[in-house]
Design goal:
Blueprint lengths: L3 H11 L5 H14 L13 H11 L5 H9 L2 H4 L4 H8 L1 H14 L10 H14 L2 H15 L6 H21 L3 H15 L1 H18 L2 H16 L3 E7 L2 H11 L10 E7 L2 H14 L1 E2 L5 E2 L12 E6 L5 E8 H9 L7 E2 L2 E2 L8 H9 L8 H12 L3 E5 L5 E5 L4 H8 L1 H5 L1 E6 L2 E3 L11 E5 L9 H4 L3 H33 L6 H10 L5 H9 L5 H8 L17 E2 L7 E3 L11 E6 L3 E6 L15 E2 L2 E2 L8 E10 L4 H11 L3 E10 L3 E10 L2 H13 L3 E6 L3 H4 L1
Parallel strand pairs: 2-6, 15-17
Antiparallel strand pairs: 1-2, 3-5, 4-5, 5-6, 7-8, 9-10, 11-12, 11-13, 14-19, 16-17, 16-18, 20-22, 20-23, 21-22
Helix pairs in contact: 1-2, 2-4, 3-4, 3-9, 4-7, 4-9, 6-7, 7-9, 8-17, 8-18, 9-11, 10-11, 11-12, 12-14, 13-15, 18-22, 19-22, 22-24, 22-25, 22-26, 23-25
Length: 706
């Protein structure tokens, strides 16, 4: 276990002005609070907070963050309170400790809570103070380093959570070293055989080729000396998981995978970085399409570096990253560089990103996303993205994730441009909207007045911002359509009880149903979230037929065993008055089919499941849904007249869906709640007599009957 003296030394090595007394006090307080607690491995529990603090000293973080690491489990797991921590170590530390506690309590792997909802809360916690997530990431890293002490099933849960959430989050924050280690530790749990296979192949490769890293770094130093360049050179083999992912992405075996070595060159100035690039390209052949200049076009998290891939010794591809010392500090610490110390003072690193702006840019586009699963999808798309840089016709640069399309480019410029997009030109040539953009291309978006987002765009768009904007626009368009449909349904339902759907009546219904306004009421009615029956009953309960002498749907079928329930088959939707057959269904009761249902053929060799049943002969309520397929003229008022005719037949419309729209005709499905088959036949005859109704049939679900 790291002693307090060792920890203080680690901090004072990069920050001689650190408050040693506060660090020692936090160490003593944490040790006292965790006295008698032990980890799964049997070690004293306080070894964990100390290890988390030590990890954060590698990032040269401020005193408050280091103290938070030492105390991060005290409020949750000990008798310590928020007030006590605040009184002893200050409000800043108390808030940070409380933030880490809340993150821990999110239980991101919980089956009871959607992962996307927890992700949203995680981002909200980050937005208050990013140091909270820095401590949490260090906490997760140490837990993954010591995960073998956990039960196998617990290991798998934590490893999957790490791979899905914490590793990409660390990468998005610019802490690439942490992302790689978290991924590899999770990979070791989730696919130990795959990881061992990579390691064995790598050892074999080293045995065959010798120490490639030592030879190439030596060659580079010789070339830099010749050019009079002062630069540090480091080489390394990529992590097993990184190699595994490349194999999966490129669908290649290990023997065909070339760029498994990475080299880093750190120069004294930006000018030397570009001179270094020239020296490398003169000495080794550059691989086409593998050059990225993140110095002139930095990543959103502040990352700056030149990336190139060259063919080294024996034709082996190697990746080279070139950057200055300040750029390297940001590349190692990412957003955490904002709090880093060097030589006793907070680093005034011009490349460090303002954490508040960074988290705002990351979360802004998701704030309006109502669907949590869509939110999670958008977050992951942004986190896992690499970048391409494209130009507007005016020469402005737009950063997009790898695989982005002109649709993403349009929405990156402005949501209004995205909505109105009808086409695109790339380098002056008209291209389809699904075209994948590449680095350095010039993109011109063609717009048209009256254009609206299409559902198919969701398959084309790759960025979270574009997909969120498209979904929102589609929802708003659907809402307008649902409001219009709701107006027709409400009018028909009120006329059914000889009343009018006035604004006052609808406002009364909205209040009774605890909805915000009439628009919300009509939208929900049109979307079949509520029924017209609900709306009318909310205003005129005395006019809506009650059960009374009618046959309850629960006892509408005769021939069942005592306690046995039934449900109507979706394939044929039998109505009272039709001849019916019952089929026993294990655990669900009896499925009732119309006697002429094609589905019954499937049960011809299972006669023991057939039940002789029939409908009760009494009066049934209009509670049995059946679907009508109509083809109607595309003229003003036709749909309204159809709804009126249905209302005149004392039937309720529970849902309506357009399935085909042509310039002259609409084809739609209407789900109508009927009393019996006689009422249905009467309604069909009346609709057939309507001149604007070209065809009307009772719909049977062929897929359910197959």
């Amino acid at each position: 276990m790291t002693s307090v003296d060792d920890l203080v030394k680690l901090v004072r090595d990069y920050n001689p002005k650190a408050n040693e007394d506060r660090l020692r006090d936090a160490y003593a307080f944490g040790m006292d609070m965790h006295e008698g607690q032990f980890r799964h491995s049997g070690e004293p529990y306080f070894t964990h907070p100390i290890a988390v603090a030590a990890i954060l000293t590698e990032q040269r973080l401020d005193d408050a963050t280091i103290i938070t690491a030492l105390l991060h489990d005290t409020i949750e797991d000990t008798k310590a309170s928020y007030e006590e921590v605040g009184r002893r170590f200050g409000e800043e530390v108390a808030m940070l400790v409380d933030g880490v506690t809340k993150l821990t309590n999110l239980q991101l792997s919980s089956r009871e809570t959607k992962q996307a909802e927890n992700f949203r809360k995680l981002f909200m916690a980050m937005s208050k103070d990013l140091r909270v997530i820095l401590v949490k990431l260090a906490d997760r890293l140490h837990n993954m380093r010591t995960i073998r002490a956990m039960r196998p099933e617990k290991q798998a849960i934590k490893a999957r959570e790490t791979m899905d959430i914490y590793a990409p989050l660390a990468g998005r924050m610019g802490m690439q070293w942490m992302r790689e280690e978290l991924e590899d530790l999770a990979f070791k749990v989730l696919n130990p055989e795959g990881r061992q296979s990579i390691i064995r192949r790598f050892v074999t490769l080293q045995r065959e080729t010798g120490d490639v890293i030592h030879r190439i770094t030596g060659d580079m130093r010789v070339e830099f000396d010749k050019a009079g360049l002062e630069a540090e050179v480091f080489g390394r083999a990529k992590k097993p998981y990184s190699i595994w992912r490349k194999m999966q992405e490129k669908d290649q075996g290990f023997s065909r995978l070339s760029d498994i070595y990475g080299f880093r060159v750190i120069t004294t100035s930006e000018e030397d970085a570009y001179r270094t690039l020239g020296v490398i390209h003169q000495r080794w052949r550059a691989v086409p399409g593998r050059f990225k200049d993140y110095i002139s076009q930095p990543k959103a998290n502040g990352y700056r570096s030149i990336h190139t891939t060259v063919s080294g010794r024996d034709g082996k591809r190697v990746e080279v990253q070139i950057r200055t010392r300040q750029m390297h500090d940001v590349a190692e610490s990412g957003v955490a560089a904002h709090w880093s110390y060097r030589d006793g003072v907070r680093t005034e690193n011009p490349f460090a990103v303002d954490p508040a702006k960074w988290i705002a840019s990351l979360t802004e586009q998701f704030d309006a996303e109502e669907d949590h699963d869509e939110f999670l999808e958008a977050v992951k798309l942004e986190m896992y993205s690499d970048q391409v840089f494209c130009f507007t016709p005016k020469g402005d640069v737009t950063n997009l994730p790898k695989g982005a399309t002109p649709i993403d480019f349009a929405y990156a410029i402005h949501t209004r441009i995205g909505h109105a997009c009808v086409g695109a030109k790339v380098d002056g040539i008209r291209v389809p909207l699904w075209t994948r953009l590449r680095n350095g291309q010039s993109v011109e978006i063609i717009t048209a007045e009256g254009q609206t987002p299409q559902v198919s765009w969701l398959e084309i768009a790759k960025t979270g911002k574009a997909r969120t904007a498209i979904r929102r626009a589609l929802r708003e368009a659907d809402r307008a359509r649902f409001v219009k449909l709701g107006q027709e349904l409400a009018r028909s339902a009120f006329e059914h009880v000889q009343k009018k759907a006035t604004d006052k009546a609808l406002e009364t219904a909205a209040r009774a149903l605890r909805l915000s306004d009439v628009h919300e009421l009509l939208a929900r009615l049109g979307a079949a979230v509520i029924t017209a029956h609900d709306v009318v009953q909310a205003v005129y309960p005395e006019l809506v037929p009650q059960e009374g002498d009618e046959i309850s749907p629960r006892r509408a079928v005769i021939g069942l065993e005592p306690g046995q329930s039934f449900y109507r088959a979706a394939c044929c939707e039998p109505l009272p008055g039709q001849r019916i057959i019952g089929i026993t269904s294990r655990g669900k009761g009896v499925e009732v089919h119309a006697a002429d249902c094609a589905k019954l053929i499937d049960y011809e060799d299972q006669l023991d499941r057939w039940v002789d049943v029939h409908w009760h002969s009494g009066t049934h309520p209009a509670a049995y849904g059946t679907t009508l397929e109509l083809t109607i003229g595309n003229d003003a008022g036709v749909l309204g007249r159809v709804c009126t005719l249905i209302g005149e037949k004392k039937a309720n419309i529970s849902n309506l869906e357009f399935v085909d729209r042509k310039p002259d005709f609409y084809r739609l499905m209407i789900n109508v709640e009927m009393r019996d088959v006689g009422q249905l036949h009467s309604l069909i005859l009346m609709l057939e007599a309507e001149s604007d109704v070209a065809a009307v049939t009772r719909y049977r679900d062929k897929s359910a009957a197959s």
